[in-house]
Amino acid sequence: MRSTAHLEKGGAGPLATDPPGSSAPTNGTSPNRLQAGPSQDMGSQVRYALAAAKHGWHVFPLTPGEKCPLKGFTNWEREATTDQELIRRCWSRAPYNIGIACGPSRLVVVDLDTPKTAERPAAWDQPGVNEGADVLALICERSGQPLPFDTFTVRTRRGGMHLYFAAPTDRPLGNTARRLGWLIDTRARGGYVVGPGSFVDLPDGVGSYDIINPEPAAPLPAWLATLLTPREFEGESTPASAREVLATLGGRSAGYVYAALRGEVQRVLDAVPGVRNHTLNAAAFALGQFVASGLLSAELAERALMTAAQGNGLSLREAATTIRSGLTAGTFQPRGIA
User: How far is the C-alpha of 136 from the C-alpha of 337, rounded, in Å?
Assistant: First the structure.
């Protein structure tokens, strides 16, 4: 674990500064383990921060009532700490929310979100699939893997879940957005999560972050680690981004439509086994809507999707059939630019 000596000497960083006119709370002792249940007491953040630190998780202050780092805390990954005295001094100032820096904490956190709107991708528009936990369950079913819910788990303010896992030591894992599927993000090196004991009051949702499974963080399942491993680490030479795919084709459409094309191509590149064909079909359908409106070349859309699909391991025959089906279906529902 990273040493906090740079905070203890010379006053470097916000955690090293003594809070003016305040003292450590008398009830700021850490519980032996993080306990399940709602965090109703707004003065309990220090106890949760101390408990997280006892797990070896590096914490730093978030703005009260929000999810962003405290003002002036720009290098949170380096300055996050497990030092008990620094934590007491910092959280005695105010009921700061708790940020947990995943990298130095050797954590991978799977964020299972709930939808903010009624819209959902065609690939996931299936009975019983309503939120990130359902998507993960479907991925497990398709992959023949057990549900990975037997680990430290936090219920988030909007009813989602954070699954905490011990990061693997044999590969570098960073943050991902929808690489596993709809409404699933992950946080690892370079990322942080809002920790238990926090309370967030924002326009898109108000609520606390509560522990619902206090078991220790289990090792990240090997099959999930494989799906989250960066392509460059695997030594693949296939295109890693939509920009690379489109650069090889040399075609462009203007503005919004080109951005949509790039986004759909990236989703195909990021799709994991078990959902690649569904993702490709949904992307083809979306682009077919622009083709029908005359805003996008059918040839460019088909070539871009084909390059991405083959780059992600789909066969030529399978990809061609799916792309044609999706493009054709999309043309029956033309889409313009609002």
Answer: 33
Number of CB atoms found within 10 A of residue 126's CB:
13
Query: In whole angstroms, what is the distance from residue 136 CA to residue 47 CA?
Result: 32
Per-residue pLDDT of the chain in tens (338 residues, 90 and over written 9)? 333 333 333 333 445 443 333 333 333 333 334 555 444 444 589 999 999 999 999 999 999 999 999 988 889 999 999 999 999 999 999 999 999 999 999 999 999 999 988 877 877 888 999 999 999 998 898 888 999 999 999 999 999 999 999 999 988 898 988 888 899 999 999 999 999 999 999 998 899 999 999 999 999 999 999 888 875 555 444 445 666 666 555 444 457 788 888 889 888 988 887 788 899 999 999 999 988 888 888 888 888 898 888 778 787 778 888 998 899 888 888 876 55
> Which H helix or E strand runs over 135?
helix 132-143
Q: Which residue in 47, 4, 68, 299 sits closest to 202, CA to CA?
A: 68
Supply 306's token pair.
Answer: 């084909």
Residue 207 in contact with residue 200, Cβ under 8 Å?
Answer: yes
User: Could you tell me if 10 and 79 are in contact, meaning their C-beta atoms sit under 8 angstroms apart?
Assistant: no
**Distance (Å, whole) CA 167 – CA 186:** 12
Residue indicated by tokens 């998780």: 57
Q: Which two tokens stand for residue 297?
A: 């070349």
Distance, CA of 148 to CA of 177 (rounded, Å): 19
Q: How far is CA 108 from the centre of its chain?
A: 10
* Dihedral of alpha carbons 44, 47, 53, 55, sign: negative
Q: What is the CA radius of gyration of the chain?
A: 23
Measured distance CA(205)–CA(197) in Å, rounded: 16
For residues 110 and 91, what is the distance between their CA atoms, to the nearest angstrom? 27
pTM above 0.70, yes or no: no
Question: Which are the contacts of 139, defined by CB distance < 8 A and separation ≥ 6?
Answer: 145, 180, 181, 272, 274, 275
How far is 216 from 155, CA to CA, in rounded Å? 16
